[in-house]
TrEMBL record:
Keywords: Signal. It comes from the Eukaryota. This is Uncharacterized protein. Residues 1-17 form the signal peptide. The lineage of its organism: Eukaryota, Metazoa, Cnidaria, Anthozoa, Hexacorallia.
Length: 173
């Protein structure tokens, strides 16, 4: 029963986040954040505004490609452009590399791979993480890191290629 409620809240939260108007989202990155796929290539962002509860984060694609292998055929915006079951690999952490998004229960494969409904690793220009049931408390001067999951986990990262850049938006509650 608890699992059904959690799945329902995650679905409703994602639906609300994707259905929000542009004015509901606040851009919290001053410049694009860029993530490389290996060699501790995480991107960083410092939050310098009033402390608030965050129900969702949206990453909006700006430029670049990342891939899980040397071949350009695997290029994607958010993970790997092959036909794998769990194609997404962008991870959000705090400054100590504690995972904030996606929630750990959604990470399904070693290397920190996951799936999100309605998100395509090649074609989607936005990646939305939501947690309306347990919002993230983002304090003034908190730093966020954005990782390629294989780089963070140090599993399968040696053949990764590329860099992707995006703006970060928050939906506050």
């Amino acid at each position: 029963m608890i699992l059904q409620i959690t799945v329902f809240l995650a679905f409703v939260g994602t639906s609300l986040a994707q259905g929000s108007t542009t004015s509901d989202w606040k851009k919290i990155s001053k410049n694009p954040v860029c993530v490389r796929t290996r060699d501790d290539g995480y991107g960083t962002m410092l939050y310098n505004e009033e402390s608030k509860m965050v129900a969702a984060l949206k990453l909006k694609y700006v430029s670049g490609n990342v891939r899980c292998a040397a071949k350009k055929a695997y290029n994607s915006k958010w993970g790997c452009g092959d036909s794998r079951k769990y194609p997404l690999n962008i991870i959000v952490t705090d400054e100590n590399n504690n995972v904030a998004f996606p929630l750990p229960q959604y990470i399904k494969q070693s290397g920190m791979w996951y799936y999100m409904p309605l998100v395509h690793p090649v074609n989607s220009i936005e990646l939305v993480f939501s947690e309306f049931a347990h919002p993230l408390y983002l304090k003034q001067s908190d730093g966020l890191r954005f990782w390629y999951g294989e780089d963070l986990s140090k599993i399968g990262h040696t053949d990764n290629q590329g860099e992707v850049c995006f703006h970060v938006f928050a939906l506050f509650v």
